[in-house]
Design a protein that fits this description.
Blueprint (H helix, E strand, L loop, with lengths): L6 E4 L2 E4 L21 H5 L31
Antiparallel strand pairs: 1-2
Organism: Spirosoma pollinicola
Protein name: DUF2281 domain-containing protein
Pfam families: DUF2281
């Protein structure tokens, strides 16, 4: 079973935001997340519609029946 629990690492201790759902000794993996500043969040570029215009095309025969499927029609 994998469970993710948030907490804060402070002065060589982890302070959990909630109680872990285990009662016995258990192996854990701790992942440290970088704090992002508001200026970093503003650097995220919004997606712009139409950026793939001219990159995708569809065959003129796209809606034509396929010969391989004649026996099912």
């Amino acid at each position: 079973m994998l469970t993710a629990i948030k907490g804060i690492y402070d002065n060589v201790q982890i302070i959990w935001d909630e109680v872990p759902p285990v009662q016995k000794r258990t192996k854990v993996i701790v992942t440290f997340l970088e704090e992002s500043s508001p200026s970093q969040l503003n650097q995220i570029k919004k997606r712009e519609g139409g950026s793939m215009k001219g990159e995708v095309w569809m065959s003129d025969e796209f809606n034509e029946p396929l010969d391989d499927l004649n026996e099912y029609m």
